[in-house]
Amino acid sequence: MTQIKRVMVFATVFLLVGAGAIFAAGSRESAVPTGPIRLRMSTAFTLTSDQEVGARLFLEMVEERLADRVRIEYVGGPESINPFELAEAVRSGVVDIGGLPGSYFSNMVPETGAMYLSQVSPEEERANGAFELFGEAIRAGAGAHYIGRYNTSYRFNFYSATPIRTMAEFQGVTFRSSPVYRSFLLALGATPITMPHSEVYTGLERGMIQAIGLTDFGVLERGWNDLLRYVIDPSFYGSDQVFIVNAAAWDRLPLDVREVITEIMVEVEFESGIVLQEIIDQERIDLVEAGMQVLTIPNEGEFVEMAYESAWDTVLEQTPDTGALLRGLIAAP
Questions:
Q1: How far, in Å, CA of 272 to CA of 57, rounded?
Q2: Which residues contact 153 (CB under 8 A, 6 or more apart)?
Q3: pLDDT of 64-91, one tens digit each?
Q4: CATH number of the domain encompassing residue 164
Q5: Which domain holds residue 137?
Q6: What is the pTM of this model?
Q7: Which of 108, 259, 264, 273 could be a cystine partner for 152, CB 3.0 to 4.6 Å?
Q8: Which positions of the chain have pLDDT values less than 70?
């Protein structure tokens, strides 16, 4: 039984018990909802981790500005719902709000596979129509309202237990991968395998994988620097962490509440990027001091171009029309 189904079973039991109690007392008086609107929220990563800096900011701002109107109940991170099932949990109403990478639900909404390819700011996306395109696709494919991005400053790197100094040396190396860089790794001749973060340390320890792809922070926090020796530059791609809200739950919110949440999200897009960049800069210093070596691929431009071209090829194969529109709006000139 998947984690989503377990949550749904528990929720069903709770509703049945609650319904019995209401039936017993309901003949005497009708209950009228009072107090703040309650919304349940989950995130793809542990809330206390650096990966959820933006989620913590969002929760703090909602509490500060909408405490008497909205109460967000955080129900847990990946220990509660599989991150790759979180968008489905939002669609089905198991939770109302999900914070997760767009690439984690590109199987439901192929257009979200282009989010990490954006080379413009969230502000520019809102102005040029890309935000609206993403929103329409997410509502149609995932039954959710897209409110915005967070952790907007991070990029991606490869990390390896053995030296990789050229593009040719990627060939045959087994990487822990995700949908983000699978196409790129295949183009490089590497072998990508899907593996949850919880299994990476053991995978490296047992030699099941020799390298990983990850954001440009988070190695130290997870302790993977014990087994990884090299950071491969240059960095590539960008953030695709987003907040989505169950469409029915969003539509039920009063208009002024929706407006405030949207305003908060715009601030989070900007402020979470600043906070996270400080973490990123410090982590690179700490990694080097801990003994990791930075190896830079000589032909950086070719490396980065392959990263984007291979990923765009996948997006355009899955969603040709909208993908082409998005590329015109978010790709570098």
A1: 7
A2: 239, 272, 273, 274, 276, 277, 280
A3: 999 999 999 999 999 999 999 999 999 9
A4: 3.40.190.170
A5: 3-22+35-153+239-276
A6: 0.86
A7: 273
A8: 1-33
